[in-house]
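Final report, closing paragraph on structural work. Over the funding period we assembled a curated collection of sequence-structure pairs, and we close with a single example.
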Amino acid sequence: MIPHDLQFSPCFLVSSKLGPRLKVVALIDPATERAKDVLKKKCDSFVRSAYENTRVFKNLDEFIKNMTPKEKPRAFLIGSPPMFRGTLKPGRDIEMQILKNFPGTAMFLEKPITTGPLEDLQDGYKIAKALEDAMTITSVGYVPCIRFLQIDVMLTLKCSPDTCFVISRLFNR
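Its predicted structure, as stored:
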């Protein structure tokens, strides 16, 4: 029996689908102490192999400055609340920063992409257009939908035995 709080955890769902092929290179979360606590729990669980070399960073810039060539992500799972992303405003433009710094890297965005005033919603359309123009593999959805993905669908997102996921903000639900 899977505990209810794990059933809806993006990390648990991806880990259970990819198993030992998943290698999470970084957790990016402004609340680094919380992220480290969550990481410790992951390393004490059945998904240890996915997280044993994971490092925690406060923001994307810190990750970029400190990552090794081997840690270059192949996919990003972005689970931060929409009030912290989905715009073109500095500090709330994680999608555009990923597109700029990691062109061609797949993204899974938890829905909704953005919320707020009309300007933010218009930014969301501009971000979608930029992702489309860059031909970036992008999926937007409700995180529990991951449990229904087949491995071959995940493979189309450039996943492989050394898959790297970076999570922009981790919530232990």
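Residues 1-8, 144-173 have pLDDT under 50 and may be disordered. The beta strands are 22-28, 55-57, 75-78, 106-110, 138-141, 163-167. We thank the funder for supporting this effort.
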